[in-house]
Amino acid sequence: MMNVIGIESSCDETSVAVISDELLTANLISSQDFHVKYGGVVPELSSRAHLQIVLPLIKDALELSKISLADIDVICATAGPGLIGALLVGLTFAKGLAYSLNKPFVPVNHIEGHVYSGFLMPEKPEFPMLAIVVSGGHTLLLLVKSFTEIQKLGSTVDDAAGEAFDKVAKMLGFEYPGGPKIQKAAELGNKETVIFPVADLKDPYNFSFSGLKTSVLRYVQKNFKDNIIPDEQKNNISASFQDAVIRAITRNVERALRNYKIKSLTLVGGVAANQPIRSALTSLAEKHNKKIIIPDMQFCGDNAAMIAFRGLKLFESGKRFDLNYNPFPGIPENHFTS
User: Fold this and answer.
1) What is the pLDDT of residue 331?
2) Could you give the C-alpha distances from 234 to 118, 190, 224, 245, in angstroms and in order?
3) Which end of the chain is more exposed for a tag (fewer CB within 10 A), N or C?
4) Are 161 and 134 in contact (CB under 8 A)?
5) What are the E-state strand segments in the chain?
């Protein structure tokens, strides 16, 4: 039996997970809800909160999994991308733990964790698969051939979809985080109120959401004096904006489905929690007779289960890492010494 522990601290969720003999036995997540009052994540406060909760979470995860630190075989942690201060908390804690226990340490790319999060579900994706990563910081279209080979087909050339959700939400007067507020408002709105444009880029698999965000801003400025928007119109704008995001995503995914031989699709990342986007991708998969795996809500946002799983697969593939591993090129190595 192999016991793997994963630590995630890339932004405003501290998470610890344990995988024992290929089974997820714990996936604890502590969310930093206090950032709401600031309208976004405050990096220094995020780092402090990670410091306070990471050890209690590790103790709880081990107790829930009915194992001790001595039973851990591999220690994994998110190594980026993310907020540097926040990442350092989980990364250095994991390196120190690995050093003290004389166990292997595996740094995990946060996005790769998301890419393979569908394998945490009872029904697994099949390779080669098309992965759609939609989060606050990234929008990617990837051809995933195995646990060790990923080909990037497209990415956003400016804003990520999740960032656009948050910025449009702020325009409409919704509190941070804005994505869930947009979805809830859109349920009561008419998506045909405004047909916001979808960028037509030279690369057929790239995305752009900056122009869409600007279109919403111009519409609000033109039609609502002093930015006073009635609730009904907030609902309609939300529905129209969300529809434009869905059109942008499904258009590129359908192009890829026509041009690449794949066995399954997977939608991952924080924005994968959006129900209309989930439904649109599910319908597209059914249209093309492809299996689609979308992780449960607990695996869409930042979580350590995906970090532990990705770390396990890297370790099984023969990857080994020194404790001096530096995920931040250009910063002196001794800045991160455990």
Assistant:
1) 45
2) 34, 10, 11, 17
3) N
4) yes
5) 3-8, 13-20, 23-31, 74-78, 105-108, 129-134, 139-144, 150-155, 264-268, 291-293
Helix, strand, or coil (residue 56): helix
Q: Where residue 328 falls among pLDDT bands split at 50, 70, 90?
A: low
Nearest-10 Cα torsion for 157, 161, 166, 167: 40
- With bands split at pLDDT 50, 70 and 90, how would you rate the model's confidence at 325? confident
Q: Does domain 122-294 have CATH number 3.30.70.120?
A: no
Q: Which amino acid is at 221?
A: Q
How many angstroms separate the CA atoms of 152 and 242, rounded?
A: 25
Tokens of 88: 């350092």
Task: Tell me how far apart the alpha carbons of residues 188 and 139 are, in angstroms, rounded to a whole number.
Answer: 26
Has residue 37 got a pLDDT over 90?
no
0.90 exceeded by the pTM? yes
